[in-house]
Amino acid sequence: MNQRVMHHDSGTEAATANAPAAQNGTLRLTAAQALIRYLAAQRVATEDGKSTEPLFGGVFAIFGHGNVAGIGEALYQYRDELPTLRAHNEQAMAHGAIAYAKANFRRRMMAVTTSIGPGATNLVTAAALAHVNRLPVLLLPGDIFVSRAPDPVLQQVEDFHDGGLSANDALKPVSRYFDRIVHPAQLLTALPRALRVLTDAALCGPVTLALPQDVQAAAYDYPADFFAPRIVPFHAPAPVEHELAAALARLREARRPMIAAGGGVLYGRATEALRAFAATHGVPVAETQAGKGSLAWDDPLNMGALGVTGSPGANALAHEADCVLAVGTRLQDFTTGSNTLFTQADVIGINANAFDGLKHRGLVVQADAGRALAALSAQLKDWRADPAWTQRAHTLADRWRASVEQLTHAPQRENRLPYEADVIGAIQRSSAQSAANDIVVCAAGTLPAELHKLWRAGRPGAYHVEYGYSCMGYEIAGGLGVKLARPERDIIVMVGDGSYLMMNSEIATSVMLGAKLIVVVLDNRGYGCINRLQQACGGAPFNNLLVDCVQGPIGAPAVDFAAHARALGAHAEHAANIGELEAALQRARAADRTYVISIDTDPARTTDDGGWWWEVAVPEVSSRAGVRDARAQYETQLAARSATDGNARGTPGKPDKPGDKAHD
């Protein structure tokens, strides 16, 4: 596929091309036809504001019992207006749809349709991922018959106490909006509500419309104007006066302020507002996983990654700051060091969602990030951070950039396996414009920690790591979604062997769609990240690395990832070392299809620089001395946190990190 799935056009005729003639201002359509027609009619202004394009870039579909006859026929009818893409796994295609929305900064999105049973329940993990990350995706699982005439139908999950439940009810806790369409007319209210949730910065997340198969096929006379093409507005609150006033009063007192930039900066298109605020007022900026790329990596005030996987300078300043401006972040424990990193600071939470802004006992400004930063800056006027604080930020940022250069360009020792920093350096050296053109995609394990510290994001969107849900298996499917959104960019998927084995089938989909990915598989022969965490908590190496697992007489398999990828239609090879990896990357960049490169890596090594404590509960009672020692250390760390809890200006010592960097 050589162009973006969401085709550009500025006209409004496309969505009506296959419509039946209107009678008395109505259109007689099945519920499924009405649903797809409505989605196809929704449009969004392009970034330059000069034209429009479809809001929905397409529908990922795996047809089966419960959606092939109803919604499948509707998708065929409107296939020119709303492309249908076939995938190989329902969870994976939902990951792809979510990644597509993230790559478009939530301004464009996709829908996903499945059968009524396993197809529907396969969406639960992906829905949870979208919910945690505040990302829009429209889930359209088939459902049982409303009539119940064939009850129980094939794949029906029966509840012994509630006849109205189906497998789709498992999606309720992980949906921001859920509706079961039990009559075709219900779409007239359900679809506008769904669209509002998908496009509202405060509500944004997964929407599930469960579609009983008999209702999908039922016809209704819909008002014709319901399907008129419309430009969809995106909703984000403006700051209110009293919240701004409180924030301004606190900021004016601050001498050592710091900004924690989260994903809301990117989704709110507030990167320039952030840069201007930091530069004008001399405030250093540290980035969360979702917010990385908010500021160019070489900006003088970009301190790098924040938190458990953070850089030394960012964490040092965060622990000394007297005020933290948390912009568009939900302040999860990896950002706050399990609520130990900036206990001495007052927190001002700028967030479209007050639920997130109030965390860490923050002073909330419920607002769009860009609007809030601009409003604060305009009234702060000549206020600046203490010059010594700003200068220290410059010094620490420069020092960290020099460290990153060294870590990613370290000489390779003979007979020593490389680790993630070596691979990251090779990837970035493989393209003179890598910082500007590449998009790195990752999700779970050791890699997100190393990437958070070491990847150089040259512009917004160059860093695409799903770490809100830390979902193994997201990587390749997510890479596909990013490529569909950004076909002009090189998409570098970095994935561990564990995640690759969990979910890899969308390699075949990427080949089929012509959506080329470069997939680098780091093979450390097991779950290296959790193996280190296990030992840091005093446990014995057990059931993580393949060598420590129960095995049959022939032992663990030696997986040939390159051979496997070739079997799925990709080009692939194995690199024996970093030099071979760099050469392979050049071949991959020149290739005509998805290219997979595997390389053996060290499961024990990580980057020692930076990091912070992360709370993982250690057993209170154990027969193992190592566990008892780890418990004692854990209790010391808990006591240190308790000593500062509620003391906004306390000065606790930096908590010890678990041994061997297990949190990475």
From TrEMBL:
UniProt name for this protein: 3D-(3,5/4)-trihydroxycyclohexane-1,2-dione hydrolase
Domain annotation Thiamine pyrophosphate enzyme N-terminal TPP-binding: ranges: 70-155
Ranges for domain Thiamine pyrophosphate enzyme TPP-binding: 444-598
Source organism of the structure: Paraburkholderia solisilvae
Molecular function per GO: 3D-(3,5/4)-trihydroxycyclohexane-1,2-dione hydrolase activity; acetolactate synthase activity; flavin adenine dinucleotide binding; magnesium ion binding; thiamine pyrophosphate binding
A single cellular component GO annotation: acetolactate synthase complex
RNA-binding among keywords: no
Keyword field: Hydrolase, Thiamine pyrophosphate
NCBIfam families named among the record's database cross-references: myo_inos_iolD
Keyword Protein biosynthesis carried by entry: no
Family: Belongs to the TPP enzyme family.
InterPro entries: DHS-like_NAD/FAD-binding_dom, Myo_inos_IolD, THDP-binding, Thiamin_PyroP_enz_cen_dom, Thiamin_PyroP_enz_TPP-bd_dom, TPP-bd_CS, TPP_enz, TPP_enzyme_TPP-bd
Composition-biased stretches (Basic and acidic residues): 654-664
Domain Thiamine pyrophosphate enzyme central: 245-376
E.C. number(s) listed in UniProt: 3.7.1.22
UniProt region (Disordered), positions on chain: 635-664
Tree of life domain: Bacteria
